[in-house]
Design a protein that fits this description.
23 strands, alpha/beta
Length: about 800
């Protein structure tokens, strides 16, 4: 954007460009004067490496006041915390304005970057260039590519835009801030950090975090202020943990939760890989691009543990040098990508509208980041299209030494879904013999229960084992399908096999048939529950569960399409799976050969009174997903057991959201969604500027990094300044600064503020009187009460 242009208005936001800067200067100076006059000393919060960007102003100018509020009066210590679901708010991310022309900076370009560029708006080209130069200068042990690093910067920059918009939205809902005594984004109360809103007359202040954490530095500052007579309140975007709640009580800070989704209205469509977007080759017009929280987070999760740690370190470094440092509830690596499963789809027949949401476990606090999100997301997407394109009777795999010609359907073998089923089938047999091993508790108990033959041999007959679906619990609500539970069942039964396993004499030669039959039934009774538990929960079968939930969704889409063609009509039954090929070099024959080799290899030995008996793999079978039985869940039961899920999946399209329907004794889960992106509206992308042309355009009032007085741009004719020593990479599990959804900001950075403050001290309270005339008072807090 050209600096002379007027910033585009964010839908739902109010802009006052004609008086924003002057008002900010007056209020910031007054805040300094008040701090000097009040002589209240509080702990100084650690500041980030970059300069502060705080822009104090009247809350009545920044915040749109509501007709009703969460609190009628400012909450007193001990007040019950409110937990509310609010309407979505909208925001624009400045960083998306430069993505269309984003290229890796050249060395010559970076040589001209000065430390002054750190104070440019977060999301601008200059600010991004400073962060990238800082990253390279820190000499990371495992440097990221430009594409990987820029992905981290874009994510952080979008979070800052979302955080500023959430702060405005939350302040508009919590309590009336419409008098001239309320200052928003104040710098002087909690020195070194921005306070979301403060009223020095009534000695009350509010802070806002879009996440669910608060730093120890913030808590210490709160304790000092509340001990001095202030009342403190903290607004979170999601439920804080029990430990955080106890810390808040210790700091005499009340708190509330305002759950609201931030909808970005100018998100750039993802380039390259675009999961869940049908190919365009058979259509005259391509479907709208699809994206969302799961796409964005998965893309930058890393493909290895080392890469994921490097990405987290880079992200934390960027966040540590970002003035407000807003954090989401799920920082990089906070999602367990191995558990990702498609659990919700919504299709609008006759259009390209298609939304989806995944459920995933949360990573334990303090753990290394999970990785591989893009691969797991691609697997679900590829499987969905495979299930749609091929016929139901092609969805099987089989490992049987007597049937080398029926390993897998020829077309199915060319897909990732086919690979997953066949490899899972072989894994199933290995898992079984692991449980049967007499060195394990389950194996020892099993062998103790067997009936020996005349010479002491322990034998059973040949059998087959296979996996098939149990009825899935689903809730169908119009154009929406919720997949609430998708269990798989393991089956075993006697089955004759001609090809013998390895070893010498077979069981039939040394043990009577009736003994073998009883022992086989014991094997079935003991082993089926163990194997079924693994299939439905063990990490070895995560991919199998992942492709199966996609199978359920695909069958629902197929059945709907038969009634009224929808977004996937041209894919369904096409038998063309070329767009979703199996990984390069994979061959089903290799799996079959490995299976045959295992049949000739001793799996374990059992020592008994007559000697040492070896055991070989003597089981066949396969996996079939021809059918997807469903058990419909009634509306009443759905409302009772999953009361918040409809809102959760809607919110998850824009950001990761905690699953509030999980029982306290269960592992915490999260939802991540995506869908058809709205067409962004805005100016045409501009070419990458020369470092001397002024850089990014003038930001709007909520552009991250602009809450500060104007500073002159660097003079291109002057020699380039050398940046100060960049901060070292922070530990992989920490970002610089605080961790409460906002990093500390340094104080006022320009000398003009000091002189204006001195003048204001001499001028007395004239400014406060002037402020009181800016906006008439309303009828009082009680008239706006919404919830206690």
């Amino acid at each position: 954007m050209n600096p002379s242009e007027t910033p585009a208005t964010v839908p739902g936001e109010r802009r006052r460009p004609e008086r924003r800067r002057p008002a900010a200067r007056r209020v910031a100076a007054a805040g300094l004067a008040a701090a000097v006059g009040g002589a209240l000393l509080v702990p100084v919060l650690d500041a980030p490496g970059a300069s502060a960007h705080s822009h104090t102003e009247l809350c009545s100018q920044l915040v749109e006041q509501s007709e009703e509020y969460i609190y009628e009066e400012f909450p007193e210590e001990g007040a019950a915390p409110a937990d509310t679901d609010e309407e979505p708010y909208t925001f624009e991310a400045e960083v998306d304005e430069i993505l269309g022309t984003l290229e890796e900076p050249t060395r010559a370009y970076l040589d001209q970057v000065t430390d002054g560029w750190a104070d440019e708006p977060v999301g601008s080209e200059r600010n991004m260039a400073w962060h990238y130069k800082t990253y390279l200068a820190s000499e990371p042990a495992n440097p990221l590519t430009w594409d990987q690093w820029s992905g981290q910067y874009v994510s952080v920059a979008r979070d800052q835009s979302r955080g500023l918009a959430y702060e405005r939205y939350a302040l508009s809902q919590v309590f009336p801030l419409d008098t001239a005594d309320w200052l928003c984004r104040d710098l002087s109360l909690q020195q070194g950090s921005t306070t979301s809103a403060v009223n020095r007359t009534t000695r009350q202040f509010i802070n806002v975090s879009p996440g669910n954490t608060i730093s120890e530095a913030r808590l210490e500052s709160n304790r000092a202020l509340t001990s001095a007579g202030y009342k403190a309140h903290h607004v979170f975007g999601s439920q804080p943990s029990a430990a955080v709640q106890e810390q808040l009580r210790g700091a005499r800070t009340t708190w509330s939760v305002q759950r609201a989704s931030g909808v970005q209205t100018n998100q750039t469509p993802p380039s390259g890989n675009n999961p869940f977007n049908p190919p365009c080759r058979t259509r005259q017009t391509c479907p709208s691009p699809r994206g969302g929280a799961v796409n964005n987070m998965a893309r930058w999760s890393g493909s290895t543990a080392r890469e994921a740690l490097s990405m987290r370190t880079a992200s934390n470094q960027i966040l540590g040098n970002t003035p407000r440092g807003f954090r989401t509830s799920f920082p990089l690596g906070g999602i367990d990508w191995t558990s990702l499963e498609l659990r919700y789809v919504s299709e609008n027949p006759g259009t390209d509208g298609f939304d989806y949401a995944f459920s995933a476990a949360q990573m334990p606090e303090g753990s290394d980041p999970s990785y591989g999100g893009e691969a797991t997301l691609d697997l679900s997407s590829d499987a969905l299209f495979t299930w749609l394109a091929l016929d139901r009777d092609q969805f099987w795999v089989n490992l049987n030494p007597d049937q080398p010609e029926t390993i897998i359907d020829e077309q199915f073998a060319r897909t990732e879904a086919g690979r997953v089923l066949l490899e899972s089938d072989f894994e199933l047999k290995s898992t079984l013999y692991g449980h049967m091993d007499p060195e394990t508790d389950s194996g020892a108990e099993f062998f103790e229960s067997l009936e020996p033959g005349p010479e002491g041999h322990l034998c059973w007959g040949s059998w087959r084992m296979w996996v098939e679906p149990l009825p899935a619990s689903v809730r169908e609500d119009g154009d929406q399908l919720y997949i609430l539970d998708a269990p798989l069942r393991v089956q075993m039964e006697p089955f004759d096999v001609s090809a013998p396993p390895g070893g010498g004499p077979t069981c039939e030669d040394v043990v009577p048939q009736d003994v073998m039959d009883r022992n086989l039934q014991r094997l079935i009774d003991d082993m089926v529950p163990l194997i079924e538990q693994d299939v439905n929960g063990a990490p070895e079968y995560a991919d199998l569960r992942r492709v199966y939930t996609a199978r359920i969704a695909a069958e629902w889409l197929r059945q709907r399409d038969a009634v009224r063609p929808g977004a996937f009509h041209e894919i369904i039954g096409s038998k063309d799976v070329s767009a979703w090929p199996v990984r390069e070099g994979w061959d089903p024959q290799d799996v079959y050969d490995e299976f045959l080799q295992a049949r000739q290899t001793v799996q374990f030995r059992y020592e008994y009174e007559f000697g040492d008996q070896p055991f070989y793999m003597d089981v066949t079978g396969g996996i079939e997903f021809r059918d997807t039985p469903r058990d419909p869940v009634s509306a009443a039961r759905f409302e009772r057991e999953h009361p918040t899920l409809p809102r959760t999946v809607t919110s998850a399209r824009h950001e990761a959201v905690a699953d509030r329907d999980v029982a306290p004794d269960e592992e915490p889960a999260a939802w991540l969604g995506g869908g058809t992106l709205p067409e962004p509206e805005g100016p045409e992308p501009t070419p990458t500027p020369d470092p001397s042309d002024g850089g990014a355009g003038t930001p709007g009032p909520d552009a991250p990094g602009t809450d500060r007085p104007d500073e002159p741009a660097p003079d291109p004719d002057r020699p380039a300044e050398q940046p100060t020593d960049p901060p070292a990479d922070p530990p992989a599990d920490q970002a610089g600064g605080t961790d409460d959804g906002e990093l500390a900001a340094t104080g006022l950075s320009s000398l003009w503020a000091v002189w204006v403050a001195l003048a204001l001290l001499l001028a007395g309270g004239a400014l406060i009187v002037a402020r009181g005339r800016l906006r008439p008072d309303r009828s009082g807090p009680a008239a706006h009460a919404r919830r206690g």
